[in-house]
């Protein structure tokens, strides 16, 4: 399958929200793919196995997942338990604005380049992670229902997710190694 070519949102608002119910049918498995956008997943029912790069993230109801830009990933149901998830897929410029901005240079670029931040699971047992998961859920819901001024609400919720993620993982972002290792680039070419 490889690089996902489906556009997510528009050039004016590069963001799209999705919601799906998955059963034990083979076609419900989301195969390996990657895209330039960031993806946030909120699990509202069941359990889900997420493969992100070379890591596995089991998710339970009420938990969420950050998938960094350009990282191969796939979703698999766990033990034939149906699940429901909500995803928001967006270009990171929705958060940083222009390349060269303080948001890009100081925060988002280091996050996108951080090898240990290919993926990150937001669990229910820590307050800040639960808050981030609920912000992801809100962003998806608002993006899908499109009430008046929804673009501001979506961006605000996503900014909250990134503020929490960056605040609680600043040590990880101090790494200077480029995120895209030789192996990751090779996997992307194979897909």
Question: Layout of SSEs?
Answer:
Layout: E1 2-3, E2 15-22, E3 30-34, E4 38-45, E5 47-52, E6 55-60, E7 64-67, E8 73-77, E9 83-90, H1 93-96, H2 102-113, E10 119-122, H3 127-145, H4 150-167, H5 182-190
Parallel strand pairs: 1-3
Antiparallel strand pairs: 2-9, 3-8, 4-7, 4-9, 5-6, 5-8, 7-10
Provide structural commentary.
Helix 3 (127-145) runs antiparallel to helix 4 (150-167). 32% of the residues are buried. With 191 residues, the chain is α+β, with helices and mostly antiparallel strands. Residues 176-180 have low confidence and may be disordered. The longest helix is centred in the C-terminal third of the chain and has 19 residues, at 127-145. It has five helices and ten strands. Strand 5 and strand 6 (55-60) form a beta hairpin. Helix content is 32%, strand content 29%. Strands 1-3-8-5-6 form a five-stranded mixed β-sheet, with helices on one face. It has a five-stranded antiparallel β-sheet with strand order 2-9-4-7-10, covered by helices on one side.
